[in-house]
Amino acid sequence: MRQVAFELNPGEILCILGPNGSGKTTLIKLIATLLIPTEGRIFIHGQDTIRRPMLAKRRLGFITCNEWSFYGPLSGWQNLAFFARLHGLDPRTAIPPVARLLKLAPYLDRRFFSYSTGIKRRFDLARGMLHQPDLLLMDEPTTNLDPIAAGEVRDLIGRLREEGKTVILVTHRLGEAQKLGDRLAVMTAGRLHEIRPSPQESLEDLYRRTVQEEGGALG
Amino acid sequence: MGKVWAFFVRDFLWELSYPLVPLWRWGGIVFRLVTFYFLGVLISPGASSYLAPYGGYYFPFVVLGLALASFQEVALTSVSESISYGMHTGTLEIMLATPTSLSTIVFSSVLYQFSIAALEILLYLAFGAWFFNLSLAQANIPATAAFLLLALLAHLPLGIISAGFLLIFKRGSPITVLFGHFSALLGGVYFPVQVLPGWLQSLSFFIPFTHALEGLRQAVINGKGLLELKTPAAVLCILAAVLMPLSLAFFAWAVRQAKRLGTLSQY
């Protein structure tokens, strides 16, 4: 990853597009402190993610959209309770607000492996929001969701912006990026390019041109 | 404490969801006890001078060996198993994205397994006492508990090092597997170390399991206290004091390497 530099303000949504393998997930994981950069620094609300990772982690919510990253035989509540405690929270006060927000109350007592993909995705979002982080990192949150479930996730992201949360959203859906993103960027071969669609050039054309000019493969 | 409790509750609930697993394990304990009880009948008391330091009976001698061997297995494998599961499902990344220290994740991940392993030692002794006339009247409880704790602290670092290997090479350390076999062979699980040729006896001195088992047997069978068992206790203390910080430093380095190489997850 090279020449990646950006600053986000509270309440902004940055949508990152890009071909498969271009480094989008790597960027998300670098911000989430799950990868260490060979050079460069990342600050979250002034906290250096390398020097003070614990303080930085309190401000960020990591939403992987990997449904396996839960404990299948445990219930939704038990899963959320485990991760709430890792954030130093009391599950009895941390879970109900996010369960209400994501309409998860009817599912909390069932075993996690019995949920549909859409419900699992909502639990993933709930887990990332348990500690009310200022910055949310979302890696393709609408992938594999039906249109209605994907629409609900997009509505939720829109509400997060209204609450002043900052979101970095990785997506392959151009329409989703255009609808949600305050800022748009394309990642190609480890480089991040901020783009601004105009009436003269649609997002799809701009995306194709950016990827091709930078030598990336449209995948 | 809330974070440690979180891991304990998680693992308890996980085990509760597969209630037959502990039943199978405890059934295995009974089968092993029956097998070695009848093997013990073959070896009449006093038939072997090697057993004299352990009261002369084979059954209590081997029961303690089996119990500590299963405890050691947990120490050597539980950290790797926990880390491996976390790598393959992605839960390790999620845990590392929370403000939870690495040492909390490592120690808390194995707390439940160790509690169960300690309970299984009690089961070995209880089944042995109820059904096979194993005498525990002499047992020195504080010394027994101390040697279990020391056995844990001396063996757990090897398990932590193995988990570090797993993070970097995707495979646990083969040394840990060999170590388990060597401990069973040279540590005196099935026969006293004194039966071995001199050079193998010398080798067995360098295995922490030998000292842990010797201390445990003397505490349970002969009722010896820590003062009388200061040599094996001191060896285990030194090993734990040296190996524990080294293993944690190695594991922390392995996590940093995994973060540089992008190998924290394998899903």
Quick structural overview:
The complex is a heterodimer of chains A (219) and B (267). Chain A is built from eight helices and eight strands.
Question: Which key features would you list for this structure?
Answer:
heterodimer, A: 219 residues, alpha/beta, Rossmann fold, six-stranded mixed sheet, two-stranded antiparallel ribbon, 8 helices, globular, B: 267 residues, mainly alpha
Structure in words:
The complex is a heterodimer of chains A (219) and B (267). Chain A has 219 residues and is of the alpha/beta class. Chain A contains eight helices and eight strands, in the order βαββαβαααβαβαββα. Chain A has a single domain, classed as P-loop containing nucleotide triphosphate hydrolases (Rossmann fold). In chain A, strands 4-5-6-1-7-8 form a six-stranded mixed beta sheet, sandwiched between helices. A two-stranded antiparallel sheet of chain A has the order 2-3. In chain A, strand 7 and strand 8 form a beta hairpin. Chain B is globular. Chain B has one domain. In chain B, 76% of the residues lie in helices and 0% in strands. The two termini of chain B are 30 Å apart. Classes of the chains: A alpha/beta (219), B mainly alpha (267). Chains A and B meet through helix 2 and helix 3 of A and helix 1, helix 4 and helix 10 of B.
Q: Biggest β-sheet of chain A, characterized?
A: 6 strands, mixed
Radius of gyration of chain A: 18 Å
**Which fold does the CATH topology of chain A refer to?**
Rossmann fold
Mean pLDDT of chain A: 91
Mean pLDDT score of chain B = 89
Main beta sheet of chain B: none
* Gross morphology of chain B: globular
First-last Cα distance of chain B: 30 Å
**Structural category of chain B:** mainly alpha
Principal-axis shape of chain A equals globular
What's the number of domains of chain A?
Answer: 1
Percentage of β-strand residues of chain A: 15-25%
> What is the helix content of chain A?
25-40%
CATH superfamily of chain A: P-loop containing nucleotide triphosphate hydrolases
**Low-confidence spans of chain A:** none
CATH class of chain A: Alpha Beta
Distance between the termini of chain A: 19 Å
Oligomer: heterodimer
